[in-house]
Specification:
CATH superfamily of the largest domain: Flagellar motor switch protein FliG, alpha-alpha superhelical domain
Shape: elongated
Order of helices and strands: HHHHHHHHHHHHHHHHHHHHH
CATH architecture of the largest domain: Orthogonal Bundle
CATH topology of the largest domain: Annexin V, domain 1
Strand content: under 5%
Number of domains: 3
Distance between the termini: 63 Å
Number of strands: 0
CATH class of the largest domain: Mainly Alpha
Length: 355
């Protein structure tokens, strides 16, 4: 609030000698509060807040002329102001949010030891359970009790159910002892916990590496995909296995796509590409590809399927490069439907299919 700047810095030399700076500030604050204004006094220093409170308690009564003079002087102070800059680095970072890079903002905040403006508990409550769970075992029982007390009840119950019984009982008992914890202590605990996430290195990619590479390999040709999977599995067996589960290709359609969703796919894919993909799959010796083509044809209208089979029978041989590209177009359409929330792939724990 721009009015706080002159409120905190009105010089005695510019005022009537009958009233001190603190008294005039008290008059202005009392008037603004009476008029229903939201005056963020917490942004003043503790010393200023104490002085202001004492002045308000000592003022008693002033006449209309004095009130008018004080307000007029305050208005002149406001009108004389050109620009009001943020108070400190914390507010400066907040005002520039989205305009400077996240990396720069995180570095400045870390170097200056500045907390993110606002209630640190707001950020903590927004974190997923898997991020909060380690805190319950890493922090003291007392801190864990405060953490649980500040979380939404469903989230606190979920976390409590994921820790060992003896530890859960200790923390639960400690919750019963939090009645005398001061607001200042809770705020400091919140700042300390939130700081652990503030200082995490910014991530350039939101998606997991397995998901990113899986999406790429989904539409790579089968020869490239098989060679890379084999090499990656030799280098890192765990990564290779997770990558295999993340990959979705044409051959996985029967196991991963529900029958009711097949018509959505046929509407999403260009008809010529769909015909090419089915023709190539049906003509190949790969049983998995043929099964996928039959699955698609078996879950669309009978009339459409018959028409598609007639077109396939009349078409010539499809070149492997064209067939791969068409099948990748079908896979890409499935991915687009999934991203839009119109289709949900069945999660397969174990998938040994190849394609």
């Amino acid at each position: 609030m721009s009015a706080m700047q002159p409120l905190a810095s009105l010089a005695p030399s510019r005022m009537s000698p009958a009233l001190t700076s603190a008294q005039k500030a008290a008059i202005i604050v009392r008037f603004l509060l009476k008029e229903g204004a939201d005056v963020p006094l917490e942004r003043l220093s503790e010393e200023s807040q104490s002085t202001l409170t004492a002045a308000i308690g000592d003022m008693g009564y002033i006449d209309r002329e004095t009130l008018a003079n004080v307000l007029a002087e305050f208005a002149r102070e406001i009108e004389a102001m050109g620009l009001v800059f943020p108070a400190g680095l914390a507010e400066a970072l907040q005002s520039l949010e989205g305009r400077i890079s996240p990396v720069t903002a995180a570095r400045l905040r870390k170097e200056a030891g500045v907390r993110q403006v606002g209630d640190p508990w707001d950020r903590i409550r927004a974190l997923p359970a898997e991020k909060l769970l380690p805190l319950l075992s890493q922090e003291s029982t007392e801190v864990a009790a405060v953490l649980l007390s500040k979380l939404p009840v469903p989230l606190a119950a979920e976390l409590l159910g994921q820790i060992p019984g003896p530890e859960a009982r200790r923390i639960s008992y400690a919750v019963s002892l939090t009645g005398q914890v001061t607001p200042g202590a809770v705020d400091r605990i919140g700042l300390s916990l939130a700081a652990q996430f503030e200082h995490e290195s910014p991530r350039a990619f939101e998606d997991d590496p397995v998901e990113r590479l899986g999406a790429i390999l989904n539409i790579a040709n089968s020869e490239t995909r098989d060679a890379l999977l084999s090499g990656l599995t030799e280098e890192d067996a765990d990564f290779g296995q997770r990558l295999q589960k993340a990959i979705f290709t044409f051959v996985h359609i029967p196991a991963r796509v529900g029958a009711v969703d097949v018509p959505k796919i046929t509407r999403e894919v260009d008809p010529e590409q769909l015909r090419t993909a089915l023709a190539f799959a049906l003509a190949t010796e790969d049983e998995g590809l043929r099964a996928s083509a039959e699955y698609i044809l078996g879950n669309i209208s009978k009339r459409m399927a018959e028409g598609m089979r007639e077109e396939i029978a009349e078409s010539g041989r499809v070149k492997p490069k064209e067939g791969e590209a068409a099948m990748n177009a079908v896979v890409a359409a499935i991915g687009a439907l999934q991203s839009a929330g119109e289709l949900t792939l069945v999660i397969a724990e174990e998938d040994d299919s190849e394609g």
